[in-house]
Amino acid sequence: MTQKSSNTVWHNATVTRIDRERLHHHKSVILWFTGLSGSGKSTLAHAVEDYLHKAGCSTFVLDGDNVRHGLCSDLGFSDSNRVENIRRIGELAKLMTEAGIITLTAFISPFKADRSAARKLVPHGDFLEIYCQCPLATCETRDVKGLYQKARAGEILFFTGIDSPYEEPERPELVVNTQSLTLTESVQSVIGLLQTRGIIKNPSAA
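The structure corresponding to this sequence follows.
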């Protein structure tokens, strides 16, 4: 990790977050989807974004695989690299919140401390943790990439749920049981959370 420069000064923008939220006609927020590989994080995040986009909201999904193609392409999957991966995502999501966007992140983010650090980057209420709860056995049956099989064969090291731990959220804003709920029901759960928190005014517009 490079040392932080002492010659940088935060510049306050002329256009504020509130100005941008008014333009978008909704509040900005981070929806932090977390769960095991195969728990449905990406599927749910993109389905929620599709719903919100059709309702006229400004959104963007930060997907785990996509981010590792660019912003985090220099990182592996050791514990220390996972920590740095989530640190970068947290900082990026914070900037997108300032842009007035509803940001959806879909990362395993297995460690409580890292999720807590991301939460602390933004004001209270701007970080909504959504736990995609699904048993490991079910996640393995959904393993279209064959990652669990490779991990159990020792071909992939530090794989969450096999030889690297996943620390379940203790007090997430929402728990979505992706084993028992349909995708439509899961989306409605998230939209209901946004409505309750006053992030969006008319969630039925889609």
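The helical segments are 17-24, 41-54, 64-67, 79-98, 112-119, 136-141, 147-152, 183-196.
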